[in-house]
Predict the 3D structure of the following.
Amino acid sequence: MVLKYGAYVVSLNFDGLTTKALQQQAEGRAISLHTAEEILNYFCATRFFHAEFQEPPPAVIKVRGDVFYARCTQVGCPWSTVEYPIDRLALEGTQQLRCPHCSADTLRLRFSFPGYRAKEEAAYPTLWITRRFIASRISCIIILGLSGRWDRYLLDFIFDLALERRIPVVDVKPDAQEKEKNPIDNFRATYYPSIVRYNDASKSSITHKQECYYIPIATSADDFASALRQELLSNSKETRNGLRRQSPSQPPLLVLEGIQ
Amino acid sequence: MWIRGLNFRSKEYFRSATEPLKLDIQRNQSNPITVSPRYLEEVGESLGLLNKVQSYLQEVSQLGLQEAWLGLPPHGHNRWDHSVGAANVGFIWLSALDQDKRIARGALRPPLDTPEKIYPVVVLSLILHDYGHVPFSHLFEQVLESINWLPPTADGSEAAILPERLNKLSKSFQNFVAAYREYQVESDDVRKIVSSLILGNYGMPWLQAIVNSPVDADKIDYIRYDSQFLSNAPFGIRARLLLDKVDQWLSDFLSEQEVNHAGLLALHGRSARAALELWEERMYLYDRFYRAPELRVPDRMAFEIVQQYLIRCTMSKPFLGKQASPPDVKSRVTYKLRGFTDRVARQRDQKPVDPVEAKYRSTLEVMLWARKYGGTSHLEFGILKMMKEQLLQHANIDESFKNFLEECWSCLSSLAEGGVELRQLMNNSLVRQPLLVPREQFDKAREVLRPIQHAYCAEALIDIAKMPRVLAAPKRYSVRSLGGEDKNQDIDYQILVPSGPLNSWQPGKRASQPLSDEVVSDLEKKYSYCRIIVICPNAANTARAVYIWDRVRSVLIESGISVHAMEHWPP
């Protein structure tokens, strides 16, 4: 979807698998964006004064996960003060992390659990600058496989965005319909009660008017993604859930992938 | 019948049907961009737009009542001519980007995935961009805002009206689909695209920038059109940006711009400089013309008549009963408001009726219905006359207030009929000098002045006019900075401009930051105020009028609002 339909992926995973998968599809040209500055630089790239300009590769926007950064413990190494995204580190034959700067095996992963101030401070600018660039282009937020149990700041961000832009939030996971076991639905009911849960009663209005709804879909991320792909390919009028197909006025989707 | 192609060509941009417009903007200077008027006419003809669109827009004057205040006939300066001008600018703009291959591949998305598909959509959107305006347009919205009848979710009356009006053009959209079968879209999709572009929520930022953004084709043309109008008007202001040499400014504006891979419109050096000139000119026109105290004096008098009429028409059953309005309007209005709280209490399980939304919808219906009272010479002035007459005939209105309204009307009618000049009216009715308060204190100032206005309602009118933002975006959204708890409002990122202070934007400087309110804050500072004036019709120099002016000033100061009387007044 990134390559063909111009979707923007906001990834919460700590590994580099999404970027790697994208690189395979895009002949090694995919990149991941970790900070607000990197996102700004990516979206502001222009060619007017560059004769040799090439279109930037597709990008994955990475929001800091649970274990995400590496830092060198070698005293005096420039990397001892810098947190470096681990998806940019190439594993050597020994599968041991080495500091790219001093080449010592003193590189250590940094843990930053949800609730850590540093983690939330790092995540907010990334999310907000993404929002300013792409919020006007999205017609729906699809959350794929995110439990939401430890990510209250992220849920706050998602529902706030949905409410402001009056767009639906689709929550895809196998147990999405079980209210008690779904932290995302509980969060919505507690803090964003004006975003109503989609049900049969609301079906008729959602087809005619774009509104802010919470739509839980009990299926796996893979099944949903392939169904969505089929839908986009077939260009049919109605999806199996009775939703209008994506409005031509707001083409791209914002896909949030996460760990369960 | 539909509008023929030749009606889509504006003589302001294309001198003849055969002579192409040459813009010396290509990077290879030996081969300038040429825009063909024939192609524009072909695109216009193929739209199959119904004639009623043209006749509707021709009826609506570009500046509303302000043309009447200047004693000029409205039909020479109407929304149709402006819409055609805006469509021509959009067409030229798109031609420049397309011919010089300045649109990155990633910026084109289905169903508008080639420039050829975009031309007709841009022309159609710009022709229809004012089709959602109701009579009095901006004055009407100011009235609703003043009495808190504008729902917080309403994106202006245009957003409420336009979709309904576009629904009635389904035949036009069917014609469009028939002409462009290769698009593989349905007429409903075309309507949605056009509506989204006009209202500013389409998902292609650069295309949105052309149709509705801080630097869109509409603004480029209305500044040209109104500047031209001003050059013939009996008003002591002349435009500073010479948009009558429009190809010169357009060449500058289009010379260094492109659409990048992310679909953002990048305005490099010369283009950014030209955009800055446009924003400066727009603010200048607002300051010295659109919201100048000279024009606010009659505008405020008309505002009072419209406001009183709408309040009574919506809230007063006896007043509604007296109206000549058709039963459907009366019944709908009264149904929506009569006992709505009881209905809400009874129907707790259903969606409650929002009283503000109900009033807002009712007033929209009333305004659309009132169109039939538009005079043959001036639509809004005819409606205003009808409103005044209905108010004066109503038994439940206090006699002293009726006399006051009568006095206001006599000022307005003598102004429109040329019996008195604008400057003379201002000298007779504007009390002392205008007061300036910071723009961020607009809401507070309005609320503290409300009781004063009520107390002196039959003697004076208090007007508070806020200067617009430099960047006139369709809507502002939340933004939050690092670790910040407070949310501000700012525009979405659609346009890129050079970094650094505004005066450093020079030819050749690369666009490297998104355009936002913060970027133009230096320019914004100059205009971040509201102007408060006190109007006593034909009694400005009486002791009572000066006393009211003093009360207004002292109430503002007591409330902690920073107030400055305008120096060098009258200008």
